[in-house]
């Protein structure tokens, strides 16, 4: 799981990130991000997840999807700590799960998120 300080909770930051740059899109989700600006104070990386009722009516399923995304992103952040790459360019991510997403395995989800980090 992501640390509480890494979770995006502020509605204003969510809105700003939703207007941000579209980094990645696949059959399951879309990643939007806010880039770091020149001279901006180093702000901790934060991530938010949006899983609407269009994905599944049951809250249990939507929460499971969010937990899987948080866990996969945490693993990627741990790998990133040793190699400063994509994390230095972005300070906020929002992952939007698409309504017509096909079922996925954790390995597929992790691979899709990892593709984004290699950009």
Question: Which helices and strands appear, and what pairs or packs with what?
Answer:
Elements: H1 11-18, E1 21-25, E2 29-35, E3 46-50, H2 59-80, E4 90-97, H3 106-117
Parallel strand pairs: 3-4
Antiparallel strand pairs: 1-2, 2-4
Describe this structure in words.
This protein has helices at 11-18, 59-80, 106-117; strands at 21-25, 29-35, 46-50, 90-97. The chain is of the alpha+beta class. The protein has a 4-stranded mixed β-sheet with strand order 1-2-4-3, sandwiched between helices. A hairpin with a 3-residue loop joins strand 1 (21-25) and strand 2 (29-35). The chain is globular and about 45 Å long. The protein starts with 10 loop residues before the first helix and ends with a helix.
């Amino acid at each position: 799981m992501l640390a509480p300080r890494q979770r995006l909770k502020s509605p204003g930051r969510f809105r700003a990130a939703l207007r941000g740059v579209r980094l990645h899109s696949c059959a399951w989700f879309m990643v939007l991000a806010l880039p770091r600006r020149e001279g901006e104070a180093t702000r901790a990386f934060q991530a938010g997840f949006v899983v609407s009722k269009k994905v599944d009516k049951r809250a249990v399923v939507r929460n499971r999807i969010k937990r899987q995304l948080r866990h996969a992103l945490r693993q990627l952040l741990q790998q990133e700590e040793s190699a400063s790459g994509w994390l230095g360019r972005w300070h906020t991510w929002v992952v939007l799960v698409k309504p017509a997403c096909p079922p996925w395995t954790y390995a597929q989800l992790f691979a899709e998120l990892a593709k984004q980090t290699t950009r």
